[in-house]
Specification:
By secondary structure, the chain is an alpha+beta fold. Helices cover 66% and strands 8% of the residues. The protein has 15 helices and five strands. Strands 1-2-3-5-4 form a five-stranded mixed beta sheet.
């Protein structure tokens, strides 16, 4: 039991012997194919790189060096692809440099020379891989040949040695009448064949692991790549969040100007007209204008209520996202059912809650205005995989046909969610129903 516990704590148990034998063809194919690839890479890269170095004082020198770096990337990718034959874990693609679209042509051309990954690939393919592949290829072929030759020596020895020629005690009479020297030699070959054959899977596996370890270090993804990706994603998320907020503010300003503001101006004019009619004794006309003013005031109030759904209400801050969405569902002109996990309020950051409230409010508004839906379902749940995520789904029984058009509603909502490093997807076939899924990783709220 103790030994079993230790093996479990130390990692997964070693592969079975049968599994190792199953990996032999792939490992052998890689060791042979990798040797051929490394020789081709050595020839091509050496010629191109050193030609570029020799002509570096000329204009054509730098492009040749860059070309060798790009070729090294291609050979390295082929090496990583061949490594899949061994059945070992796939080596992740490194983070290659990305040039800005507005960068100059020279900057784009010389970008590989500023990347450590390109130089690592060149070093691996031009120096490390040829040396390593030559050694492992020699060991692998020798070991396999010894196993095969030793186990089959009794089958082919008399063919190789000839009918009458005696070599090492073998004669044309064959193994059955061989002398003592021949018998010892046969046993020795058989012993070598058995030992080599039994150990062949481990040897090939070990050689493959050596290649895989070196390739992982020189051709794989480095910790710095993950950090750089995290920084780029964070920067992109902030840009997307700022763009979404700016778009939302412009839209709110436009809606206020085109809706409530116009109605309030009309209401002000009507009240002034009422005052003039009253002062001149035209009571009936004043009553008629007053009724029209009441209509304008009611319409302005309804529009302000609709616009306020895009602004975080005090309820969101006081009682959390679940309470705010429940109140939003109750105020909707549609029949809305909200099924929300109460644990959401404990793990969702305030900025994430505001963004999700705005998105759900906008989706409800779209469903009421454009979809012809009668019922809407809001579902919110937590997913406890790594990283922890919140999934919010809004579905309606409308006519469907919704799509993301750049610069319009759903695209703006997707941009807002992207600012939280989340994802918004839409399923809305013609005839309905429409389903919008929002997935946001938790613990990534953006702060000003």
């Amino acid at each position: 039991m103790a030994g079993q516990s230790n093996s479990q704590e130390g990692g997964s148990p070693p592969a079975s012997y049968v599994a190792l034998w199953r990996a032999v063809p792939g490992s052998l194919a890689y060791l042979v194919g990798g040797f051929v690839l490394s020789m081709v890479a050595l020839s091509v890269l050496s010629a191109v790189f050193f030609s570029g170095v020799g002509m570096v004082i000329l204009v054509v020198g730098l492009p040749l060096i860059v070309g060798s770096l790009l070729a090294a990337r291609g050979f390295g990718a082929a090496d990583r692809t061949l490594l899949r034959l061994t059945g070992l874990p796939e080596i992740a693609e490194p983070g290659w440099p990305v040039t800005e679209p507005e960068a100059s042509t020279a900057s784009k051309l010389l970008a590989p020379m500023r990347s450590a990954h390109y130089w690592s690939y060149l070093l691996h393919q031009m120096i490390v891989a040829p040396i390593l592949a030559t050694m492992t290829f020699s060991v692998a072929i020798t070991w396999a040949a010894t196993a095969l030759g030793g186990l089959t020596f009794w089958m082919w020895a008399w063919l190789v040695l000839g009918k009458e020629q005696a070599v090492g005690g073998w004669t044309s009479r064959g193994l059955g009448v061989a002398g003592n020297g021949s018998l010892i030699e046969a046993v020795a070959y058989l012993f070598l064949g058995v030992v080599s054959g039994v150990t062949l899977p481990w040897v090939l596996r070990g050689l493959s692991h050596v290649h895989h370890g070196v390739a992982s270090a020189m051709l794989g993804r480095w910790p710095a790549d993950d950090l750089a990706t995290e920084v780029r994603n964070e920067s992109a998320a902030r840009v997307a969040a700022i763009a979404a907020e700016d778009s939302a503010m412009r839209r709110l300003e436009r809606d206020l100007h085109d809706g409530p503001q116009q109605r309030l101006v009309r209401l002000q004019m009507d009240l002034a007209a009422v005052e003039r009619r009253v002062s001149s004794g035209q009571a009936e006309e004043a009553v008629a204008i007053t009724k029209e003013a009441q209509t304008q005031a009611k319409a302005a109030l309804e529009e302000l209520r609709a616009l306020s759904r895009g602004v975080a209400p005090p309820l969101l801050q006081d009682r959390g996202l679940c309470a705010a969405l429940t109140a939003l569902a109750q105020d909707s002109p549609l029949s809305v059912t909200a099924t929300l996990d109460p644990a959401i309020d404990e793990v969702v950051a305030p900025d994430t809650a505001r963004a999700l409230y705005f998105v759900v409010a906008e989706l409800l508004t779209n469903a009421a205005k454009h979809s012809g839906a009668r019922t809407v379902e809001i579902a919110g749940s937590l997913r406890y995989d790594e990283p922890q995520r919140l999934r919010m789904t809004v579905s309606d029984d409308g006519s469907g046909g919704a799509s993301m058009v750049p610069g319009h509603g759903l695209a703006g909502l997707a941009e807002r969610i992207r600012g939280l490093r989340g994802q918004l997807t839409v399923e809305s076939p013609e005839g309905g129903p429409t389903r919008v899924d929002v997935t946001v990783p938790l613990g990534t709220g953006l702060t000003a």
